[in-house]
Design a protein that fits this description.
It contains 6 helices and no strands. It is mainly alpha-helical. It has a domain of 30 residues. Helix 5 crosses helix 6. The longest helix is centred in the middle third of the chain and has 29 residues. Keywords: Membrane, Transmembrane, Transmembrane helix. This is ATP synthase F0 subunit 8.
């Protein structure tokens, strides 16, 4: 017996296995599984947040006259640059750099070919 004869014999003797499944639509299974997945994810996130809130609390604030606190503030201020201006000032500076055409993006924006 050749391969083609076996394949044709198998397909003619066995009915389509998917025919039974396609007769009855179970849309509610999809809907329930989607809702369950969403609620399970929400529950996991909420449990994580509660766990983090209960077990990872911030350190208590030090008093104003504590030398350790003064050292920490000094270290923080040296590590960060002071913010100069507001958001609008930064946006105007950025727009000015773009319009001047000194950056690649500005050159593309300003080019009038």
């Amino acid at each position: 017996m050749s391969c083609c004869e076996i394949c044709s014999a198998v397909t003619t003797t066995t009915p389509n296995p998917n025919a039974e499944c396609l007769k009855e639509r179970k849309w509610w299974c999809f809907l329930l599984s989607s809702i369950f997945t969403f609620l399970a994810g929400l529950l996991i996130v909420l449990l994580w947040r509660v766990f983090a809130f209960l077990f990872w609390r911030k350190e208590p604030e030090l008093s104003l006259n504590d030398p350790k606190q003064k050292e920490q503030k000094a270290a923080r201020s040296q590590g960060k640059q002071e913010f100069e201006g507001t958001f609008m000032t930064e946006a105007k500076d950025w727009a000015g750099e773009l319009i001047s055409g000194q950056t690649t993006t500005g050159r593309i924006l300003v080019s009038t070919d």
